[in-house]
Amino acid sequence: MTAYGTPLTALADWRLPARGAAAVDIAFRHRVPGMQFDLGGPGRGPWLDAPGHLARLARAVGVTPLAVTANVLNDIGLTAPEGTLVAARVREVLVRLLDAAAELGAPLVFVPSFRRSAIDSGAALHRTAEVLRAAAGQAEARGLRLASENVLKPEAALWLVRQVGSPAFQLLLDTYNPRAAGLDPAALAAATAPHLADQIHVKDGPAGPDRTPLLGDGDGAVADTLDTVARRCRPVRALVLENDHRGGDTARLTADLDRVRALAERLAHRHTETAQTWGS
């Protein structure tokens, strides 16, 4: 892909009715070339790094592994104080996450900061920076990029980038999570553009199996946020559909994927327009 080519359309396996290899089959049937995977865990499905599983996924034909996340961290608590059993558990999960991405050949890992990992205080922000600083160093050693998915205000998000202080560290943009937290996703994208990962989660409403509005039908103003990314000339490798499709409604999934592809074409066009304007 050139710097401003049409982004790949991708799926998140944790928003599908199946995980791992079965999710890859869904992507293949829907002509989706990219996939993000969840590490799994208690209440989150089978572990992605179970013996032999990563090797089978790496050999899958037609679907490129783009990223791995660990949603189980939302159940554990990334901000647990150093020296506690919970903090040790967090470190263990992060190592497994990084190792899984390296074995799978996915270039990006991202760490969610919601529920028990929410950055809801100054102390939580400082602790998140400490944990991610260590993880970013490990990611860099493996040739990976590490991103944080959060709903921080722009100034706090930029502070986190400075405190982690690693060229491997980025911010993962979601087109709806900031709005759900009372923020403007487009303004957030504008303020943090130099630090955004080249994969973007696109959704248009809160999670709920087959109840999330189709892209463009909710209040997320998804296209406006992506237009902002284009105006900041931030290259995008993939738009990852994160609307909730766990209920298995194939027609809704097909409709949403058509809309993601249209957004990808629009983003490429806006990038071209911006590049031509800057070059004139």
Automatic annotation (TrEMBL):
InterPro entries: IolE/XylAMocC-like, Xyl_isomerase-like_sf, Xyl_isomerase-like_TIM-brl. Signal peptide: none annotated. SUPFAM superfamilies: Xylose isomerase-like. Residues 43-219 form the Xylose isomerase-like TIM barrel domain. It comes from the Bacteria. This is Xylose isomerase-like TIM barrel domain-containing protein. It comes from Streptomyces spinoverrucosus. The lineage of its organism: Bacteria, Bacillati, Actinomycetota, Actinomycetes, Kitasatosporales.
